[in-house]
Design brief:
By secondary structure, the chain is α/β, with parallel strands linked by helices. It is 29% helix and 22% strand. The two termini are 20 Å apart.
Length: 486
Amino acid sequence: MEHRDVIIVGAGLTGIGAAYHLSDKCPNRSYLLLESRQAMGGTWDLFRYPGIRSDSDMHTLGYSFKPWESKKAIADGPAILKYVRETAAENNIEQHIRYGHRLISASWCSKQSLWTLDIRQDNSDALVQMTCNFLYMCAGYYNYDQPHDPQFPEVDAYKGTLVHPQFWPKDLDYQDKQVVIIGSGATAMTLLPAMTDKAKQVTMLQRSPTYVVTRPSEDWFANGLRKILPASWAYAITRARNVLFQEVLFKMSQAFPKVAKSFFIGEVRKKLGKDYNVDKHFTPKYFPWDQRLCLVPDEDMFNAINSGGANVVTEHIKRFTKNGIELETGEHLEADIIVSATGLRLLVMGGATFTVDGEAIDFSSKTTYKGLMVSDVPNMVSVFGYINASWTLRADLAAEWICRSLNHMSGTQTTKMVPLVPESLKDMPTKDWIADFPAGYMQRSMHLQPRQGDQAPWVNSQNFRKERALFGKPIDSDGVLHFTAV
């Protein structure tokens, strides 16, 4: 049976970064990446809809170890995919990837300090097995095969073209077509300006508004620094500056929600003018950062609306019709093409099942350890980024901590590490794994996730500054991460 010291599940942005950190900091550890699809890149290879881009700047979404040197800080999907592929090529990572390999189940044996993985290969119903000492889950957080289905009323009545951004048809022709995009998140706000140049009319249909912020796609600060400093220095300075800006914006919004709301809505009024109904279409009922803000680079969405080629409708759907959508108000939206940008379906641990010494793991009954491991489950880490900052900031922190943990085990000649909640904390208050974030795509799966406690390290703070300090402490300093040898 094939064996590696570490098996990484997922060859997207997180998995490729994990592979780099392992090869750099744990060169004596053998590793392998399992990728269910036939290409690396994850999200940035899967999504192919018009205008796909990041809603985070690439100086924080990029890796800590590889400077982002493009002029555009708000990058499109192909540019990000190229960056991921370059990282893999520069560090000889691709030779360690097994494409078309989907993890189905994993079982831990304490007697051997070993994970045995059941893996399904493409075009085969048979399972192959591999073993590893450490399992590194980088499978992302959503279902690649099934997006969220909001169960539209009478959707079968519609005779036009209905598409989901997750499965964008290569040959979709929207030239001079009436397009309705259902949704109010980052995907919908990306599609609206991207489709306006060809479509006859693009309408974004939303049940309720989302906060929108604008910024230039090119970062003058970063581009200026690169002219006078080495690329790595310029990148590090820009990264630190942007992290600080994100943190201040988030904290100020939390401390002064009414002021933040007034500021964000005021900026939208400036872009759309006094005659536009900003109160209805761009004023959420909640406060900023109760849900993630949507980033609009170069004011492209507002420019599309001001041009007359795009508009926003804020109403509830009554039913689908043969040629469009009827709203609760009785208004009818004609549509040749309807895009269902209604969000993602989250997936715990990539959809795989897990056992420890023959006992099935119910993650919802476990407690998170640093938002990385779960109580009573040895030698397994699952990476989930930030909801209030760039994903990769946390992925990098996690990778560095994991490598230090592996090196600690090598130095102490131990083979197993497992977080155990002490008896004195078994009854500590708990809350959702991602707390105080009522976004629908999160809330739909919170009951499946582990819980978090009320004190470190049993928390998932989603706070970069706090976690940088927490993760930087000696690996065995908290007394609840237990190390043993076979």
